[in-house]
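Q: I have two molecules that I believe assemble together. Could you output structure tokens for the complex as a whole instead of separate predictions?
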Amino acid sequence: MPRYETLVEATLAAPSHRPFITMWHDEDDFTTMTFGEFVRSARIRAAEFQSKGVTLGDTVILIMQQGPSLMASFVAAMLLGAVPSILAYPNFKVDPVKYRAGLSGVSKNLGARLIFLDQQFPEGLLDHVAVNDGTEIARDIGSDELAFSADLPVLVPNSNSVAFIQHSAGTTGLQKGVALSHRVVLKQLEHLEAALRLNENDRIYSWLPLYHDMGLIACFMLPLVYHLPIVMQTPANWVMRPGSMLSLISEYGCTLTWIPNFALQFLSRRVPTDDRASLDLSSLRYAINCSEPVRARSMDEFYTAYSDFGLRPDALQTSYAMAENVFAVTQSGTAEGCAPSRMWVNARLLIDQHVVIPMGNGDRDAVCLVSSGACLPGNQVRIVSIEGEDLPEGHVGEIAVKSDSLFGGYYNRPDLTASVLKEGWYWSGDLGFCLDGELYVTGRKSDLIIVGGKNIYPQDIEEIVWSHPLVHDGRAVAFGVFNSNLGTEEIIVVAEVENQDDLENAFAIERTVRNAIVAELGITVRAVYMKPPRWIVKSTAGKPARFATRQKLLSEEPGLQV
Amino acid sequence: MNPLDQNSQANALLDYIVREVIGRPGISLSADSPLVSSGLIDSFALVDLLAKLEDVTGMRIPAGKVQPKDMDTVNLMLLTATRIGKPKKSS
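A: Yes, here they are, computed for all two components at once.
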């Protein structure tokens, strides 16, 4: 594979007749676009962006439904040397006031020159949205209606220029923008190419959102640069009929897919037997479990469900990835025929004391850990104690990452950057250990909750709960509890009422709180517990203590841990 | 579809949602109560609800043509079934 200087150069080198995106909505509703058609569609949009004054270095925010138009708009911005950034498309649950505030915040932070929307974007979400002077809002009018300007200049920046901004965790207005240069993105892709032994017969399947690194890097940038076809669904389309993912992999002979842990379990349990009969998953070389903690049980369940349908025992692999490193730090299964390493350790000592004590398979108190694989070339990890000392193999500490694809900092947020990027190392906040050259991720230093691959800060939820007039100010906590039936964490909220008598209105308060959380954050919580005053455990500093409150609730409600 | 049919379909769905999806028997919901947009159920429950909707209405509903917003209330679910459902072939 030739080496390119920029993503634009790689895109323009694609053979025009080669199939690129198959966008699937239903058996009678799908389209396939070649690389030639894709580039044409991108160039038409680039001309449109140029007419709006977009030029080298400008930021362009894209809020469009998942599909070829969004992808073409992304490349269109890069053709002009501008910097695209995809934001999550608002779902119907969103509260307009909160959404406008969030959009305004992120647009100011990114200093956006253009906010580009599709035709379906609800007008009501735009009324009086406050943006910077000089920020224009425009809608995509559909590429085929516009004349194609073949002589559109391509303003290719150098490889160290920012190619795009992807977002890390956080609510819309407070998201951390990770600015990535062409060089670091191409480096990451080069490492993935080698690790996954990419070849021209590969074909990717994805339902992953493009505002997330796993969707954007593995399932858009990788096929774009290596000129591979991709079969896509929207997340909403997939969630309504999860088995369609497996039917599409079978039908199109897809070889690579990335998938968060919960989806493995969702697919094991929610696909009717009749829909499995014609599956043939033998084409699948890699189904990579990534973006939330990897669970042995979810992987075993998936393999058991689909091994009779051609799924190879070594297809299920793992990766540890983060937006700050473009994407992957580690990858398992880089040697053909190897399943990810596993080990049994004492669960109690791991959780309470962060120590790794190996045990036998199935021993009492033993938990099975799955390795996330070895570092990709150009990537290194250190395991560091709370005191800042490097720990030897088999000891749990914070995972720090250094690589040739590491970001340079959060966009316009030097304060946040300084707290995580020190002397060339990124401090991930994740806990783990190394053994025999492989990384095992065991938890998190912070209280971050990961639901279905989406990172959620508990304080974002708690602030919403506090704002209810009958909830005691500052007396609510949110935390994650792993649900083994779902294969992911779920969010539990505990809140104290202002007065004991207010408990009579517990269900009404709960409904209001649930409503507000879903409208503001688009998140559904599993349970809200309304408690009397002074129920929540406080820290020595007098603040609600999430971990201790979680333990107290779980001892009262053991059924929560399934 | 006569009104009685629709009523009993709505009740069957509500009963299923309260008992099986939310798991809180005793709470009161109406056929117009928002479910997804109110945070009572999340989109991962929709695949089960769609199967139940097919069961209750006797229709085959093409999932690719259903959006989460079409399933936000029991009445919307029944409307969706009427709009895009096709009678199931009897086995």
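A: One point stands out. The first helix of chain A runs from residue 7 to 12.
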